[in-house]
Amino acid sequence: MTTSSALVTGHVGLNVTDIDRSLVFYGDVLGFDVLGEGKEDGRRYAFLGRDGTLVLTLWQQADAAFEPTRAGLHHLAFEAASMADVRAAENRLRDRGVAFAHDGVVAHGEGTASGGIFFHDPDGTRLEIFAATGAENAPAPTEAAPTCGFF
């Protein structure tokens, strides 16, 4: 199959156990807007985005937390425009008592400029907020593997 352009990620869909709790986390804490919502019993979902662009869909159809040892999503990474934006997100998350996988901003690898913060949503889904530059002096928690690979 030949295509004329490269594929890019359109949006990500996540199963959640409690959509109201997840809407607070992804909306109030991470700053996504609700672009649309389905509120029928047994068929709850929400389309989340920024500036009218769909980024994430939440589906309330899980009955247990994220399981990192099962095949499927490893983690979801959001790119910020700058390291200052990453640190602002870190402060919002800390203010809400969110636990981090690493202590603050860490580099993606030894000596790399990119890096960010690693944490979990209310269902245990692994999340990352990173910037392409600004982590030059941040520690790398593991030497031989990307930081985002093991948390």
Principal-axis shape equals globular
Report the mean per-residue pLDDT as an integer. Answer: 92
Radius of gyration: 16 Å
Instruction: Give the helix proportion (percent range).
Output: 10-25%
Biggest sheet record: 4 strands, mixed
CA-CA gap between termini: 36 Å
The helix-and-strand class reads: alpha/beta
| SSE string | EHEEEEHEEE
Q: Uncertain segments of ≥5 residues (pLDDT<50)?
A: none
- Strand neighbour order, sheet with most strands: 1-4-3-2
Overall number of strands? 8
How much of the polypeptide forms β-strand, as a percent range?
A: 25-35%
- Tally of contiguous helical segments: 2
Secondary-structure blueprint of this entry?
Blueprint: E1 12-16, H1 19-29, E2 33-40, E3 43-50, E4 53-60, E5 76-79, H2 83-95, E6 106-107, E7 115-120, E8 126-131
Parallel strand pairs: 1-4, 5-8
Antiparallel strand pairs: 2-3, 3-4, 6-7, 7-8
Structural features, described:
With 151 residues, the protein is an alpha/beta fold. The chain is 16% helix and 31% strand. It has two helices and eight strands. The protein has helices at 19-29, 83-95, and strands at residues 12-16, 33-40, 43-50, 53-60, 76-79, 106-107, 115-120, 126-131. The strands form two sheets. The protein has a four-stranded mixed beta sheet, with helices on one face. The chain has a four-stranded mixed beta sheet with strand order 5-8-7-6. The mean pLDDT is 92.
Short description:
With 151 residues, the chain is an alpha/beta fold. It has two helices and eight strands.
